[in-house]
Amino acid sequence: MGKKYYQEDIECAPREEISKWQSEGLVRSVRNAYENSEYYRGKMEERGVKPSDVKGVEDIHKLPFVSKEDLREAYPYGLLCRPLSECVRIQSTSGTTGRRVIAFYTQHDIDAWEECCARAIVAAGGTRDDVVQVSYGYGLFTGGAGLNGGSHKLGSLTLPMSSGSTERQIQFMQDLGTTILCCTPSYAAYLGETVSEKGLKGTIKLKAGIFGAEAWSEEMRRDIEEKLGIKAYDIYGLTELEGPGVGYECEEQRGMHICEDQFIAEIIDPNTGETMPDGEKGELVFTSLNKEAFPMIRYRTRDICVLSHEKCSCGRTHVRMAKPMGRSDDMLIIKGVNVFPSQIETVLINNGYSPNYQLVVDRVNNADTLDINVEMNQEMFSDTLSEISARERALVGALKGFLGIYARVHLVSPKSIERSEGKAKRVIDKRKLY
Ligand code: DLL
């Protein structure tokens, strides 16, 4: 039996102690940003705040927000707060539009990040006796490096697979007895599909998976758990803050514990910037407490989420975040109704379809249209055309009933939608092409 926590004194610390760390960390971080980055200093001066105005967490609202646009504007060194000679690494986001975001790390920053990832692995039942297969992409993306580092810190045998080469992934799982798989949920679903089609479930020893980097539904979780015979845990994070490990699920799986010794989490109303109370849905905002090279002060993630300070029976005291529904930029507005791709995923899986789908949004005669391509399984594929049309109509009805939107549904042949090895691209928004 391994330890239940990686750092019990931190993960289960009393609230008063957490608040004390947060106040001290905030003061330190604000000073670091103000004194070492002209860009941060400019933003604070514009808002009329000085480091001496921030004495503790209660003063956080005085500080200006930092947005993705700020990061782009300050690229590459504007927010850097340590000389390059003290930095040991960069990582970068997978952004497809505009400039990439680059984050810098000192060795201290890397250590703190890897500790968060080690906590996540232990929370998923990991011990030094586990074999951890890291199938997130390695390179600039933080997924591979983060979980790799966490697994090392814990002392587990680490398989630095990176993503792709599905056959080889399964071969290693079999040959080396992988017990914990780390990858994106869409890649886990693909691996699960392959394992179950080939009848290999009995030949692998997986017990848990740590999946994140994109929004995924509870239905998708059950699908993956079933196909791989595991318990699937969610993990959250973003490059700007460190990478994976900002939040992670424990065995209770009722939200992800945010590493509150490293970050202050707030929920704000995305329109007004006002802080919202526990339990209300809004945009997640983070402030780093200990980052040296690249501190983030009130960073607006655009992720839509809910926080809960309710006591968790796992013993951890850090605040929990619900599964993010997706980024506000991924939210589709279809004839005035807000829909996230993950909600459509829920309807599809509940109606017996696989999580292989694509959404095509367009504007025709000034009205938004949504087309959903969904894969049939082999069995459905052999149905008659009229049976397939009836299935399509049933799915249109289910979507309308559940989400209140009208979408055209096209059932497509098995395996015709490209599988993802990293973050899945589920939405094609043709409106952005005009
Ligand atoms: O995706 C870091 C990561 C790697 C997290 C591996 C978990 C596992 P970025 O590429 O900077 O970093 O993308 C960050 O991905 O703002 C969310 O919109 C989304 N995201 C990350 N984790 C989750 C999750 C990594 N568990 C952006 N659920 C974030 C939903 C997630 N969305």
TrEMBL record:
Q: What is its EC number?
A: 6.2.1.30
Give yes or no: UniProt keyword Ligase: yes
Q: Show where the AMP-dependent synthetase/ligase domain sits.
A: 86-287
Keywords, ordered alphabetically: Ligase, Nucleotide-binding, Phosphopantetheine, Phosphoprotein
Question: What biological-process GO terms show up in the record?
Answer: phenylacetate catabolic process
InterPro entries, alphabetically?
Adenylate-forming_Reductase, AMP-bd_C_sf, AMP-dep_Lig_C, AMP-dep_synth/lig_dom, ANL_N_sf, PA_CoA_ligase
Q: Which Pfam families match?
A: AMP-binding (PF00501), AMP-binding_C_2 (PF14535)
Q: Which domain of life is it from?
A: Bacteria
Q: Which residues cross the membrane?
A: none
Q: In which pathway does it act?
A: Aromatic compound metabolism; phenylacetate degradation
Q: Which intervals hold domain AMP-dependent ligase C-terminal?
A: 336-431
Q: What class of enzyme is it?
A: ligase
Q: Which GO terms describe its molecular function?
A: nucleotide binding; phenylacetate-CoA ligase activity
Indicate whether Phosphoprotein appears among the record's keywords: yes
Q: What does this protein do?
A: Catalyzes the activation of phenylacetic acid (PA) to phenylacetyl-CoA (PA-CoA).
State whether it acts alone or in a complex, and with which partners, per the record. Answer: Monomer.
What's the protein here called? Phenylacetate-coenzyme A ligase
Organism this protein belongs to: Synergistes jonesii
